[in-house]
Amino acid sequence: MREDVRPGAVRPGVGAAYGRTSSGSFPEAFGAGADWERASRPRDRPPRESASMPHPYVLLSAAVSLDGYLDDTGPERLLLSSPADFDRVDEVRASVDAILVGAGTIRADNPRLLVNSPQRRAARVAAGRAEYPLKVAVSASGELDPRARFWHTGGEKVLCTTDEGARRARKAGIAADVVSLGTALDWGALLEHLHDVRGVRRLMVEGGGTVHTQLLQQELADEMQLVLAPLFVGDPRAPRLFGPGAYQGGRLRLVETRAIEDVVLMRYEPTAPGTADRVVPADRHWLRLACELAAQCPPSRTAFSVGAVVVAADGTELARGHSREAGDPAAHAEEAALAKVDPADPRLAGATVYSSLEPCARRSSRPRPCARLILDAGVRRVVTAWREPDTFVEDADGAGVLTAGGVKVVVVPEFEEAAKGPNRHLLGREGVEEG
Ligand SMILES: NC(=O)c1ccc[n+]([C@@H]2O[C@H](COP(=O)([O-])OP(=O)(O)OC[C@H]3O[C@@H](n4cnc5c(N)ncnc54)[C@H](OP(=O)(O)O)[C@@H]3O)[C@@H](O)[C@H]2O)c1
Question: Which of 65, 67, 71 to mutate to test the pocket of ligand 1 (most atoms within 8 A of CB)?
Fold first, then answer.
């Protein structure tokens, strides 16, 4: 129970919440009064919810013709952007920790991939960063020209490749740090490497189509910056931006459009939730929104402020809600959101509920706690930022209830502080009166 306070429900004499974290540790002993929800709690093992692995923020950047091509088939690189847009790209490059391209782009374009503006480079140095972003090349074969400009311009370079590719690249004398990621290259492992070993927090991906397609289809892209150029290629042999395959079902979110001379920049974000315990960039967006909704709740001294969003598998927002919505002092966020969805809506079965705080397992103000409402709605995935502390009730375990009911619960701890933000005044309290 997170908002309704019953006398005796508060854990007495304990100042801090017990140490449940995403990696999980439960207290050994529980208080009295187990009920059906608590009976389902995994008492002697870590919680079964999952946590996400850290990746850099991945920004895909490309320019396309009106008929969707990245290039033509001529020997020279087709210039799609306008001068002012090349300058914008330079600015984006200056803002990131690393720029990645596929081997096909190195072979076709022989690019340098530099920050061209001396002022931007100076600003990077003044900020304590490397003058140039790390340059990352991706190749399975390792068949790369050691004379390519990519290896001889800018700052540090790394080639991410396979065992076989590494052997070839080293033999060819590629002037880069050659990293083998095994017999085949896995994008998740590559991103983890860049994050953990290279310290990359923002990654700009500059193509080509094979690379963009995989990152988008594997739901590893946070954002797409697409420039539409007012010309046609008209040659089916030319490379397209996105190849065939499985993409997210629904519509992406348009976050910006900008006319730059005669081209238009469009920025899109994916919207489709991850599946099971896999956290994708869209999950972070929706959880961030839930935390923003929590901040909009009417303040209370006797209840948490929580935000919730229900999102269909194709990324369509079905409903949102927050605590004490519409003047109802007992309203819970998940309850308020689910009440706006037709219970017969078939999309509920594939939906994800995002809640800034773990859904409640017990409450006195309504017959069904939010964990039960979620189970009854048929939703099979919940993503939350914060396990419920003992502020109002001891050992509330909505995640356990949900998990026992077959729901995958995922905790994304990077949003815990945002979820706590509107509730600071409640934390550390040892007890409250029923309000
Ligand atoms: N308009 C624009 O904004 C823009 C930007 C960039 C590029 N382009 C154009 O795009 C074209 C090149 O695109 P592209 O699709 O042919 O090539 P690409 O995406 O640049 O590179 C593909 C290559 O990357 C490596 N690779 C990709 N995925 C991999 C994986 N999962 N594991 C291991 N290696 C992997 C492979 O290298 P190996 O073959 O070495 O194994 C693969 O052949 C060029 O015509 C270029 O001009 C346009």
Answer: 71
